[in-house]
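Handover notes (outgoing to incoming on-call)

Open items:
1. Helicase ATP-binding domain-containing protein: sequence verified, structure written out, both below. Nothing else pending on this one.
2. Nothing else urgent.
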Amino acid sequence: PALLRPPKGASLREYQMTGLNWMVSLYNNHLNGILADEMGLGKTVQVMALIAYLMEHKSNCGPHLIIVPNAVMVNWKSELLQWLPTVRCVFYVGAREERARLFATDVAPALFNVLVTTYEFIMRDRSKLSKLDWKYIIIDEAQRLKERLQAVTR
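Helicase ATP-binding domain-containing protein structure tokens:
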């Protein structure tokens, strides 16, 4: 996709293109899926390629939601800004006041394509965030949701 701006010398590898095509097939067939490549093989980049594809070829500009563990938020931000520099991203983190400001200025008026947040903040602000009509939801390290739910029910 043209929206995808790989760093100089970088490009999607063949297995990443296969993963992208598989995710596009899931989207076209209204199915969910788990991209379970090994760590370090570029799942984040494949997801960004999917977002670029949806925006360019499906006229699906969002809003898209990406939920990530806190430990990888900085990496997601860096990668999104590098690979999708023209896509409007909101990084929904910070103190309650900062999130309230982001919600009022960017989220509620829908001035974004992608919102990235953590498990913690999606739970804290679920009453507001659940009202949005998310076009696509991506959950990084989804197995942690199960662990988190088990911890809550104990």
